[in-house]
Amino acid sequence: MKTDIFDHPSMTNSQGNVSFQKPCTVRMFTYHELEQATKGFQDEQILIDHAGGKATLYSGTLIDGSRIAVHRLQCDSERELVEVLSRMEALHAVSHKNVPHILGWSVDSGYTPLVVYEYPANGTLGEHLFQTKDETKQGLDWHHRINIIAETGNVLAFLQSEVCPPIVHHELNANCIFLDEDLTVKLFGLELPMNANINNKKHSDVHNFGLVLLEVITGSSSDHLPSKTALQKITSGKLEEIVDPHLYYHEQPIFRREQIEIAADLATRCIIFGSQDGKFHIGDVSRELVHIRKYGIDGRSRRCPSTHNLEETFSNSSLLQMISMSPDSIHVPARGFS
Question: Hydrolase among the record's keywords (predicted)?
Answer without folding.
Answer: no
